[in-house]
Amino acid sequence: MTRTPPFRLAQGGRLIDRAFQLPFRFDGRHLRGVAGDTLASALLANGQMLMGRSFKYHRPRGPIASGAEEPNALLSLGQGGRFEPNQRATTTPLVAGMVTRSQNCWPSLDNDLMAVNDWLSPLFPAGFYYKTFIHPRPFWKHLFEPVIRRSAGLGAAPTDADPDRYEQAYAFADLVVVGGGIAGLTAARDAAASGQRVIVLEQAPHWGGRTPTDHPGGQAAIDALLADLSGRANVTLRRNTMATGLYDHGYLIAREAIADHDPNAGLPRQRLWRIRAGHVVTATGALERPLSFACNDVPGVMLASAVRDFIIDYGVAPGQSILVVTNNDDAYRTALAARAAGLDVPAIIDARPLADGALPQAARAAGIRVLTGTGIAKVKGGKHVEAAALCDQSGDGRVLETIACDVIAMSGGWSPVVHLWSHCGGKLLWDDQAAMFRPDPDRPPLGADGKGNVTVTGAANGDLACAGGLEQPEGATMPVWVMPARAPYRLRAKMWLDFQNDVKVSDVELAAREGYASVEHTKRYTTLGMATDQGKVSNINGLAILSAALDQPIPQTGTTTFRPPYTPLTLATIAAEARGEAFQPLRKTPIHGWHETHGASFEPVGQWRRPYCYPQGAEDRHAAVNREILAVRGGVGTLDASTLGKILVKGPDAGRFLDMLYTNMMSTLPVGKCRYGLMCNENGFLMDDGVVARLSEDSWLCHTTTGGAERIHGHMEDWLQCEWWDWKVYTANLTEQFAQIAVAGPKARALLERLPGTIDLAALPFMHWAEGELAGIPACIFRISFSGELSYEIAVPAGRGLELWQILHREGRDLGITAYGTEAMHVMRAEKGFIMIGDETDGTIIPQDLGLDWAISKKKPDYIGKRAQQRPHMTDANRWKLVGIESLSNKVIPDGAHAVAPGRNANGQRNVQGRITSSYHSPTLGKPIAMALVRHGPSRMGEVLDFPMPSGDVMQGRICDPVFYDKEGSRLNG
Amino acid sequence: MAEILAQVARIEGLAMITIRADLTRAGDALAEATGLPIPGPTGITTDGVRSLGWMSPDELLLILPQADKAQAMQSLDQALTGEHALVADMSDARAVFDVTGPRADDVIAKLAPVDLPRLAPGTLRRSRAAQTAAAFWRIPGGLRVIGFRSTADYLGLILSEAARPGTGLAPR
Amino acid sequence: MLILTCPYCGVQAEETELHPGGEAHLKRVGPDGSDEDFEAYLFARKNPKGVHFERWRHAYGCGKWFLAARCTASLQVFGTYKAQNPYPPAEIVDAIRAHRPDWQPDWTVQHAQAESPAE
Questions:
Q1: Which CATH class is domain B14-92?
Q2: pLDDT tens sequence across A645-680
Q3: Is C73 a member of any domain?
Q4: Which residue in the set B155, B162, B171 is minimally distant from A238, CB to CB?
Q5: CB-based contact A267 B92, cutoff 8 Å
Q6: Which of A433, A502, A816, B165 is packed most tightly, with the most Cβ within 10 A?
């Protein structure tokens, strides 16, 4: 039969307000809904049953459900940055002005060219792609994959950044109840009375679940519970909040929709709740199962509960003539609701041989024809239901009668929503009586105390008659996995299990025949349950088919794993505030603002931003680095070294402790002096380096690398707390207390002597430090050098760092003072052959590899890493050792390039004998310089190594001393 | 137009001194030097001008006006003479924000994995605010938050964003 | 996401406030150790399915390292205790036994009686 208006009923619709008309657009057409509509109810009210196309065969599809389980009615919403694909029409509240589009069809929803796949469907059984596109191999990458990618996928990815705000919040509760239906609200009331902190989460905008729809007096019962709960200070009731996942120790993640599709409210669009629950009650209800009969995917075939939801909740007639097909009593409610709304119910097709419960009797009393022992052989119609051919349920599909209708309301029974229970390890049991998996109360998810921390109530627990006194007695459900029972292949190949991914009964049976015995493998082979709905309506039917095909009971087949999220979450909600400026904390030195206003080009070093260089005018970065280096070597420069770690180590045992921490001796360092030190881990590998200053008899200041400050402080505390807890040592991480400025270059002292101060620089030898005042600022001056030049590192309280920096630049202008960045520092240290943690080291390098034996004490009986450095592999003469490399071509050999050796290894690759660890153009020397680790390197001076490039060229470099500049160290004195 | 949830204000001029010592041995001397009772674990004591926070079993944080810092450092050094102890000026290493207003708790609850309704006055909670370390405690009208100087911009930004008008956590 | 109570400050911290440190109660082997002992110290980890002792640092908190007795399969936490214990203290052993009667400590009792200097 054809579909005829009116689609919006004259009366009814408990969730809508007809006074408020809401215009919206669907595929360019201007339509109207009313306040309270979902997108699905509004489209149905406009006679739009066709809402999408299936994934594989591009079959026309309408909604089958009215809630979160909907697999078909996925639409694209919004435009530009707010474009969002794959939104379920059944859970999307209608908003005035909404722009919506159908997906997975071209050129239009009504005429989709890819529907040719449906005609070819016999060619595309389960595993088709795996079997077909495997040979010849190169075709996959260059031909098959690009074509399949273009035609596959649901919806389209948005191209613009999401302009909306998202946030997160933490909450704590003794009890979280998930589900605001009658079972959940009752559980909340019982717990609240005992004074517990209770949070109730409901995914829908309204409370009550199915009770107000299904039971006369249901709304009153819900209202009474809400009145009780909302008066309690210890109860938080939160609607529009979907619990997406339950994790270890009662950690529950939920998404609250705040301003979805209402961007003008100025509110966060969604909020991610991170809730720590002492206990969780899942009252998540149950989902109705489809029945597997031929062409059960034609638009107009809907779940019986959805049909009555649209009628009762939204005042929408999905059709004028509603045929009900069922294996249980509950679906009779749909027949009665349709009849009460003035719609035609030509018959109720009941697969059970007998139906004489209260609801069937009421249906018969209302004059509705009830056919028992009957099934649907096939649905007639293409883009919408036109009729159903009936058959004997126990037979092979011979047609007995054909009944015209425009909607078929099907019910294959109910499956408890066990997702949250299962996310965190709760186990299920198969209830043969009720034909459902439900939570096994003896095997719950466990909390931190080892006790079960989740309980289940209501329909989620399999108690489908949980509305108490509102319920009528119902007859038993009869499992019906295939309709009719002895349907031939011709019919089974048209029975849809997974509507979104186009998986049919015949596909699962094929997988079983091909040897797929595990449900997890079958899922992946057939894609059953792998669509965006994650098999909410298809899962149990698919398991039952697989079990039958494997000739084993359903519990032996088991279920696939339930994983969060329950329904898809947008990534922006998970990111919450962590985007844009707040994506991650940027650490800024006290001088950061000056760097910004002086054109610094920054580089990330951990979470710090450090100036890489300061390009001036039209200079590029390379030119800026060269200029900065020459300025330091020829005059004076300043480096913001504030990021260097500064850890105070103090106590009677501090010297002993540092002797264990560093490879060299720190306890003997005289007060007032500095010493370069190396730190290894217990594996013997070099983990950090820096200059240590002896501050007083019992205190040392340990400088670390920029990235090492927190790590090394943690390393120290680890050893002090867990190994040598009786040693009297305290540490304090002073890194951020001080700004540190390196003043380097032959004119460094001349500059500093221009500033008033109490420290006599002429009397401060190399590797000494002094404390006093400089330019009126309390300061520590360390005469240390990482550039090879005369150099002072000046530490002042962070709040005065910028002041000192500015004074230096004012006073040093005529000396050509130049701010230099990290790259100039790197090049200058390489010119001097100084190693850099992270360049010359990679977590597998010991100090001995780097020619740093001089910094390893031979006298100390022990230090961290000493035992490891005695292992044969560490003392192996074949270890690669640090050398310098001179490029023969006058071009910089790329960092990381490998030096090849004769022959090939077992994998046919060239043998290697070394690699470049640092490589730069040296403006000081006017040529490329590099450091490398090379097998037997120090004894091979002058040898030329080959470095093959990806282009096929070979660069050559000659082994040399790694100290390229000022080997005598005379420049340290200016 | 809804009100912002709370005022977020950067507080300057506070000095902070880290004290590490055996608190059972040196407690009395420290109480005398600081003029404040020694707080118990996760506690903070205050006289309205100075506060003394418990940071760890062997660490206290003295918070006081900048002007009193030098004197306090001296008193502490004196009080701890002969003790194995460490006293360090951390004033410049920190950033302080006051979050004040009727919904100040909501601002912190969006950023820290802490049970705010159970945060009693006189409790100093060390935790994190989103991705940066922070400590906070109740002050009249709201909460005081301390973090690191280097991430002060980040901390200020996330606090202000969390305080946007109309974004209170009460159920809608 | 786990929650563990720091035995130093009493804060019930969630995993993001903590820093994991691997197996607890390793005995350091220094320069005099044999190759076998040193290898075991560096690399041999128990990795049991069941009762496990592990190190955690209250990193976003008091900064102290502590130890936790936990079931790696069920994630049940039997207790947390201070790092300055060479062996799990008696109350932790009792708590484990209460839930895992068959579980046996793999250290010798006379060592376990050594008092922790930090207690």
A1: alpha beta
A2: 999 999 999 999 999 999 999 999 999 999 999 999
A3: yes
A4: B171
A5: no
A6: A502
In this complex, do B109 and A581 lie within 8 Å of one another by their Cβ atoms? no
ipTM above 0.85, yes or no: yes
pLDDT digits (tens, 9 = 90+) for A526-539: 999 988 888 899 99
A688 band by pLDDT with thresholds 50, 70 and 90:
very high
Q: Which two tokens stand for residue B112?
A: 């820290």
Size of interface A-B (CB pairs under 8 A): 124
Confidence class of residue C114 from pLDDT cuts 50, 70 and 90?
very low
Determine contact, residues A338/A345, Cβ cutoff 8 Å.
yes
* Tally of domains within chain C: 1
Q: Which of C9, C36, C75 to mutate to test the interface with A (most CBs of A within 10 A)?
A: C75
C119 within domain boundaries: no
Q: With a cut of 90, say whether residue A113 has pLDDT above it.
A: no
Whether A249 sits inside 8 A of C33 (CB atoms) is: no
Q: Return the residue matching tokens 């690399």.
A: C43
A200-209 tens-digit pLDDT: 999 999 999 9
How far does the CA of residue B68 sit from the closest CA of chain A (Å)? 17
Amino acid C109: pLDDT: 56
CATH number of the domain within which C11 lies: 3.30.2270.10
- pLDDT of amino acid A534: 87
How many Cα neighbours within 13 Å face the side chain of B121? 5
Least confident of A458-462, A554-558, B8-12, C1-5: A554-558
| pLDDT band at residue A151 under the 50/70/90 scheme | low
Domain range for residue C89?
A: 3-26+43-112
C118 lies in some domain = no
Q: pLDDT band at residue A150, thresholds of 50, 70 and 90? A: low
- State the nearest Cα–Cα gap between A716 and chain C, in angstroms: 12
Task: Tell if the CB–CB gap between B92 and A797 is shorter than 8 Å.
Answer: yes
Q: If you search the block for the tokens 């939104």, which residue do you land on?
A: A87
Chains that touch C (3 or more CB pairs under 8 A): A, B
Enumerate the domain spans of chain B.
7-11+93-162, 14-92
What distance in Å separates the CA atoms of residue A864 and residue A845, rounded to the nearest whole number? 15
Nearest of A475, A377, A398, A479 to residue A432 by alpha carbon: A479
* Helix B69-79 × helix B23-34 angle, to 10°: 140
Which domains does chain A possess?
166-287+416-470 (3.50.50.60), 477-557 (1.10.10.1100), 593-641+739-829 (3.30.1360.120), 645-736 (3.30.70.1400), 875-974 (2.40.30.110)
Average pLDDT over every residue of A718-729: 97
- Domain B7-11+93-162: CATH superfamily, name plus number: Probable tRNA modification gtpase trme; domain 1 (3.30.1360.120)
Q: Which residues of A touch C3 (CB under 8 A)?
A: 249, 276, 448
- Given an 8 Å threshold on Cβ–Cβ distance, is C33 in contact with A714? no
Pick among B54, B126, B137 to test the C interface (most C CBs inside 10 A):
B126
Please state the length of chain B: 172
Which positions ≥6 away from A180 have C-beta within 8 Å?
A: A200, A201, A202, A204, A207, A208, A209, A237, A239, A283
Interface chains of chain B (3 or more CB pairs under 8 Å): A, C
